[in-house]
């Protein structure tokens, strides 16, 4: 639920697309917009999860492929998070990340794309308030055991001190096995529980994590500190007689694409993107985004209800949910399928009288490269002597046992306090080019023990099921942060009792629309 706000005064018109027609990209001007997980004025709460996404639109009004993107987040002038252009490289032009603001004040998010003809920058400004959180817990209905490939029903509700469900709360539903990320999606509850159906893909112990938070923290919304609930599900082998996925041949090339959906009852359009390609390999990840956009303004349509169903090549249901309301009209799904075959993600969207639909078809390939592609080793540099309150540069280096860089791979990254129920202070995906290195700058808000949680993966059909770090098993790297300086507190941002800016900062709510207006010519090329 990331309220999408354009940062350039540009109107791009799109012709009404035919249902499921494939879209051809052109060249011309581009614009970066910032999607944010908040109300239109950018209000955030200390300790809550805030989601942002930098989206690069081309002159044709669709997300653009393969661009380096430098992303930075500052609060009260202090740098909290930053990527390099290489580590922020994105395959489908929709680059999302989560973070937690540690102190009250004013924040700014910038994203600058790097291209052969120049740069395009987008910016968004908002503010953070401090509020006394109320007690909250998660009421979870989840089986302790399941059969591989057999869908199970899962429901959860964020409840108050009296055990009553809170209205309009949010969660990130995530599944991992031995540290590898298998599935993630954002869900929302209107009045009752959030619900979904999910099929664990393989046998063994799977970890289900649900990060509970409030994605739209208005002054009247329930305030509670974001927290994580984790359960283990033991998955038995598939039942005897289960059908076998068909054998596939590798395609000539791995493609990028934007799929245009169909709609009725209004001017909005639906478009879906593939990150990295329309084909992925086993032990990889497919990151799929569906956007509902008003083509007359290039604004995402707020408050869209979604339904989504993911099926495999045999038509078996792997995931389904209707608890997918998005404030910004962007539905993001991450899946790490391992069985080769062709998969379908069918999405329905509704906002008022308008309805739309889109289908994304992607293929999981069998391994097509030599077994020497794995295993891989991930080294962590720059985070051994860290103090709080000051940016530190961390560098991850992925390489094989001979020391050769694992080029053009990616890693899902989370940094979280060493607390089983803590929310990550930052969560994102990073990219490496030829050198196998992922660089970033991060400020730890306070001293203590943290965990750097890594889930590396190949972008192509390379057989890399095993990754190693400082120890064997899941890549949870322990970090110790010593006491340093305090982060600067709010300056020049007096707040009212409701947590909104007062008249001492006139026009503050307009800042998100005016800050960082950037527009430059950019030759949009298809490159790796």
Mean pLDDT: 83
Largest sheet: 10 strands, mixed
The helix content is: under 10%
The quaternary state of the protein chains shown equals: single chain
Rg is: 22 Å
Number of helices: 1
Structural class call reads: mainly beta
Spatial separation of the terminal alpha carbons: 29 Å
Shape: globular
Could you tell me the strand content as a percent range? Answer: over 45%
Low-pLDDT stretches are 1-28, 502-528
Question: Total strand count, please?
Answer: 38
Can you characterise this structure?
With 528 residues, this protein is mainly beta. It is 1% helix and 49% strand. It has one helix and 38 strands. It has one helix spanning 511-514; strands at residues 3-6, 28-36, 43-45, 49-57, 68-75, 78-83, 94-100, 105-115, 118-129, 137-141, 145-147, 152-159, 169-177, 180-189, 194-198, 204-213, 227-236, 258-260, 262-264, 269-275, 279-280, 286-294, 299-300, 305-311, 317-321, 330-335, 341-351, 354-364, 376-381, 386-387, 391-400, 409-417, 426-431, 437-443, 448-458, 467-468, 475-482, 520-522. Strands 1, 2, 4, 7, 30, 32, 33, 35, 37 and 38 form a ten-stranded mixed beta sheet that branches. A hairpin with a 2-residue loop joins strand 13 and strand 14. The longest helix has 4 residues, at 511-514. The chain is globular. The protein starts with a strand and ends in a 6-residue tail after the last strand.
């Amino acid at each position: 639920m990331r309220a999408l706000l354009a940062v350039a005064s540009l109107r791009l018109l799109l012709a009404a697309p035919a249902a499921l027609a494939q879209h051809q990209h052109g060249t011309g001007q581009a614009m970066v917009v910032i999607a944010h997980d908040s109300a239109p004025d950018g209000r955030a709460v200390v300790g809550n999860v805030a989601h942002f996404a930098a989206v690069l639109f081309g002159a044709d009004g669709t997300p653009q492929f393969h661009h380096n993107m430098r992303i930075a987040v500052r609060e009260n002038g202090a740098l909290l998070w930053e990527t390099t252009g290489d580590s922020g490289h994105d395959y489908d032009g929709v680059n999302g990340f989560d973070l937690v603001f540690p102190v009250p004040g004013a924040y700014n998010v910038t994203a600058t794309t790097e291209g052969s003809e120049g740069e395009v920058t987008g910016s968004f400004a908002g503010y953070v308030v401090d509020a006394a959180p109320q007690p909250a817990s998660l009421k979870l209905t989840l089986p302790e055991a399941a059969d591989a490939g057999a869908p199970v029903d899962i429901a959860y509700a964020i409840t108050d001190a009296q055990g009553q469900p809170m209205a309009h709360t949010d969660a990130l539903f995530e599944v991992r096995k031995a540290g590898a990320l298998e599935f993630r999606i954002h869900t929302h509850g209107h009045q009752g529980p959030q619900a979904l159906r999910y099929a664990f893909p393989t046998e063994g112990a799977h970890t289900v994590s649900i990060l509970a938070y409030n994605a739209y923290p208005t002054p009247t919304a329930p305030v509670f500190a974001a927290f994580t609930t984790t359960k283990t599900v033991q998955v038995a082998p598939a039942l005897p007689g289960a059908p076998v996925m068909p054998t596939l041949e590798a395609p000539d090339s791995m493609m990028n694409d934007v799929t245009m959906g169909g709609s009725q009852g209004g001017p909005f359009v639906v478009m879906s993107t593939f990150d990295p390609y329309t084909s992925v390999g086993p032990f990889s990840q497919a990151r799929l985004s569906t956007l509902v956009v008003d083509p007359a303004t290039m604004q995402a349509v707020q408050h869209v209800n979604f339904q989504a169903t993911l099926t495999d090549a045999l038509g078996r249901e792997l995931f389904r949910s209707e608890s997918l309301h998005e404030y910004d009209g962007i539905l993001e799904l991450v899946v790490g399928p391992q069985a080769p075959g062709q998969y379908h993600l069918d999405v329905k969207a509704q906002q008022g009288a308008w309805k739309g639909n889109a289908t994304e078809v992607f293929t999981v390939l069998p391994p097509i490269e030599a077994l020497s592609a794995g295993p891989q080793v991930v080294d962590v540099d720059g985070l051994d002597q860290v103090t709080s309150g000051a940016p530190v540069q961390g560098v991850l280096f992925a390489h094989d046992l001979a020391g050769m860089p694992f080029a053009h791979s990616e890693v899902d990254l989370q940094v979280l306090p060493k607390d089983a129920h803590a929310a990550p202070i930052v969560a994102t995906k990073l990219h490496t080019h030829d050198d196998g290195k992922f660089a970033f700058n991060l400020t730890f808000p306070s001293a203590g023990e943290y965990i750097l949680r890594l889930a590396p993966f190949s972008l192509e059909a390379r057989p890399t099921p095993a990754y190693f770090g400082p120890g064997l098993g899941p890549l949870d790297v322990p970090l110790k942060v010593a006491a340093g300086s305090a982060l600067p507190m709010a300056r020049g941002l007096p707040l009212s009792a409701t947590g909104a800016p007062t008249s001492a900062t006139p026009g503050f709510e307009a800042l998100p629309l005016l800050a960082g207006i950037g527009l430059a010519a950019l030759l949009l090329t298809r490159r790796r």
